[in-house]
Amino acid sequence: MTEIDLPHRIAWGALLLVALLAPIIVGFDPYLTHVGIIIAFNVALATTLWMIWSLGVISFAHAGFMGVGAYASALVLHKLGLSMWFGLWIGAMVCGALALFISLPLMRTRAVYFFMASWAVGEVIKRNFAYFKDFFGGWDGIFDIKPPVLDLMFVQIDFANRTAYYYLALLFVSLTVWVVYRINSSRTGMIYWAIHENELLAAHTGINVFRHKVICFTIACTLVGITGALYAHYQTYISPKSFDIWKSEFALVHLIVGGLTTVGGPVAGAISLTIVDEVLRASGYFRTIFFGVVLIASVLLLPGGLETIPRRIRAIFQRDSHK
Amino acid sequence: MSDLLQMGLTGINLGLMYGLIAIGLTLIFGVMRIIQYAHGEMFMLGAFVLYYWTAEFGLPYWPGVAVSAIIIFGLGALLQVTLFRPLQGKNILYSLAVSLGLVLIISGSGQLIFGTITKGIPSAVTGGVLIGGAYLSYERIVISSVSIALIVGLWAFLRLSVTGLAIRAVAEDPDTAALQGIQTKRIHWIAFGLGSALAAIAGCMMGSLLSIVPTMGFLATIKAFMIVIMGGLGSVIGALVGGLILGMIDSVVTTTISGDIALILSFVVIFLILVFRPAGLFGQNWE
Lengths: 323, 287
Fold this sequence. Notes:
Distance between the termini of chain B: 46 Å
Order of helices and strands of chain A: HHHHHHEEHHHHHHHH
Order of helices and strands of chain B: HHHHEEHHHHHHH
Largest interface: A-B, 41 and 41 residues
Number of domains of chain A: 1
Oligomer: heterodimer
Strand order of the largest sheet of chain A: 1-2
Shape of chain A: globular
Number of strands of chain A: 2
């Protein structure tokens, strides 16, 4: 909410630089590039969820809306024959329109009941994909969603190449994080946090709480719809299972482990936990057990999340200098 | 006519079982204001304790249910003291995260220890009776009566006993309750253990009716949360009514249309209930 200061600027710049150089550092290794792309999607998912959290609620329909964007883009490709460059925006618009339509009744519910109502929305979205077999392909999903080709007259970039797709994903994720950050540090963002702190008080200072909630939810879902479209064209295959409750829950876990007060929290949480998850991938059932242990340990031993680490380190040195 | 009766009887039977799982959850939520996402795992563990008791050691059924309830009571109390107590009074998201971690740990180790093969618990009673053309097995009658007995028993316990009064006082206002000399920490682990034990008993009942796998907890959690939210968090009557509504939808829509539609419809019903009554059917409105 305050103007960004120098250490934060350096940290964000360094992160972006590392992200830009990452494929070169790992020597264009296909698997590690894939991990990078997954990290990018998770960062976008967690960051947009954090935007809804700035209203004081957590939406379990988030993966569902990601699915709406993915399915819209895939169907635009299959039924209309338009490439991802159209599907991306059509997916985002469909997602935004649906989010606007649903949030009108959804935002009447509050606190814990909002979790459940949004969970119901997410499940119904997923079940609809599964039920209407002819249109959405049922549980089998949609196959053969081609990645796009960018034709720049003299060079052609085929995004079937992983490194190329990595930079595409990085571009959109950086834009997403930037948009969320800008909204959050603007006057509108302050209004969201006012609603977060005390809805009644916010209403009494002249804030139209309901309208701001609906707008914030719609923006966040539109952004996650874009991420969904990118996800569909990267995996080239989507099914209702890709967008179930677990995806929303893991986004929430990224948020909690990362920290809830700044946009750095979800970014840090998504990056670190996706890496932990990939490291544990080879260990079978132990993977879920270890992940659970990491989750519980980080909540109990590091309250406030990863974003408080710099402050903790600084506190250690300050304590020493005072003595 | 007999079809309708059959659907109604199955619906009530399912509803009572769902209600039993949900009442444990609503008790935990009402007293501690935490989201216990691993409630379904208690249900699963309860069923497996009974499985090992009857199928592996060959011991009788009913003592096994009691043993299972006691073991899960202890486990629930232990979890409350070690994991959930430090989170008391913090944002509800932290308890959600910790219990989500528990879900991963318990279902992961369950698959590792119990194996992923579907198992069955031998039923305590066999046979059945025809009522007006609808078949009702004695097993379902027993399960329904156990559910009713436990729900009435819990209601009486909360209304009549001193500990029950203390639990309700802590649910109402923990600080004022503490000022009256109630040990809130003790009440917390008792309520948590009791809620988990109810889930374990429901698991024993369900386990002999259906089959048991280590991953069955998740579905139970979903059902329990749907019911509790529909009925209103912290309300025992609400959990019973919500359970019956969900049981009816499951029974009627699954037989007449399909199982997928039953699930979609139940989520739509919950959504509509929450939109028109934002605190559930019987819940009080609190922040």
